[in-house]
Amino acid sequence: MSETITPKKKNILGYSLSQLEEEMVSYGQKPFRARQLYEWIYVKKVYDFSLMSDISKSFRETLDRDYYFSLPSIFKEQDAKDGTIKLLLEMEDGAKVETVLMRYDYGNVICVSSEVGCSMACEFCASGLLRKERGLTSAEMVGEVLVMNDLLSKEMERVTHIVVMGTGEPFDNYDNVLTFVKIANEQRGLAIGARHITVSTCGLVEGIKKYANEGLQINLAISLHAPNDEIRRKIMPIARRYSIDELLSAVKYYIEVAGRRVTFEYIMIKDLNDTLECADELASRLRGILSYVNLIPFNPVKEKPFERSDKETIKAFSMRLNSRGINCTVRKEFGTDIDAACGQLRVKYQTKKKK
């Protein structure tokens, strides 16, 4: 007699609305059943199928048999004087990732991690100290936002903007990230406007071109951090795979197809990429590209030899770019009294754990 194999339960938080509609149709249900489920989950915040009263009892039992709800748990929380919240979240399998909330005048911005660890190994980044173990599922990324929203609900607030700029390279976990941003953008889901969501990449050319063809209005940011290949290769291993010319060619393709402006992230490192000559070279490379540059004061990482550029240098660099016709801003600093650098809190925990 053959054994009946029960399919493994699936975390229902990992489905975009269109994916969930397909799931419901596979059960012989109408597509609107998915919209009902989204209403219960994201609007009413009900994570128990038995309480979903406008769904028949028999189908609720089917849902309970095949699906489940799982949110990350807060392993450690750091709260900064400026209102920044940094969470070390624990997933079902014990994996830990960081999620950060930053408070701007225009809203509450969450920085979402897309992977457990990172294989890009950028020399200035704490995240790269611990290599990638796996990609996060779309459900786990949704969970990052829901956990933060739960904390903010005590202040009658919620997440209003999302940047996928935490630990991991989003385009190295492309499908899960894409599903996540669709859930985030869905009006019946997390209800974050497309132009309030940004996905950042260190420069995976194929991913940029693929993203261009998705038909999304979601923003794209490029971690550039150098005006030429010589400097970029010193701090970003990905630069040995793609030259800046190849990267900018993909960016131009994205702009042409998607019709969206691109943000270039540029971390300011003392005596490495912060001279006025670097600013001039950067301006020459970016001239004519629909973009702006976001200068980022470097957050020191004790395991790394780099120092941050001083305020006067950053100001001079910014003014030089603007004078050369390149729109430029300097990113506001957050959480300076806690483990501010991306990945720093997780590295501290993992290092302590090994001792």
Task: Give your account of this protein's structure.
The chain has 355 residues and is an alpha/beta fold. The chain has two domains: 10-68, DNA polymerase, domain 1 (Orthogonal Bundle); 73-354, Aldolase class I (TIM Barrel), CATH 3.20.20. Helix content is 35%, strand content 19%. The chain contains eleven helices and 14 strands. It has helices at 17-26, 32-43, 57-66, 138-153, 174-185, 205-212, 229-235, 244-258, 276-286, 311-323, 344-354, and strands at residues 10-11, 67-68, 73-79, 85-90, 96-104, 107-111, 115-116, 134-135, 161-164, 197-201, 219-223, 262-268, 291-297, 328-330. A ten-stranded mixed sheet has the order 3-4-5-6-9-10-11-12-13-14, covered by helices on one side. Strands 1-2 form a two-stranded parallel sheet. A two-stranded antiparallel sheet has the order 7-8. Strand 13 (291-297), helix 10 and strand 14 (328-330) form a beta-alpha-beta unit. Helix 1 crosses helix 2, helix 6 (205-212) packs parallel to helix 8 (244-258) and helix 9 (276-286) runs parallel beside helix 10 (311-323). The chain is globular, with a radius of gyration of 22 Å. Mean pLDDT is 93; it is low at 1-6.
Work out the number of β strands: 14
What's the number of structural domains?
2
* Low-pLDDT stretches: 1-6
Query: So what's the overall shape?
Result: globular
Give the topology.
Layout: E1 10-11, H1 17-26, H2 32-43, H3 57-66, E2 67-68, E3 73-79, E4 85-90, E5 96-104, E6 107-111, E7 115-116, E8 134-135, H4 138-153, E9 161-164, H5 174-185, E10 197-201, H6 205-212, E11 219-223, H7 229-235, H8 244-258, E12 262-268, H9 276-286, E13 291-297, H10 311-323, E14 328-330, H11 344-354
Parallel strand pairs: 1-2, 6-9, 9-10, 10-11, 11-12, 12-13, 13-14
Antiparallel strand pairs: 3-4, 4-5, 5-6, 7-8
Helix pairs in contact: 1-2, 4-5, 6-8, 9-10
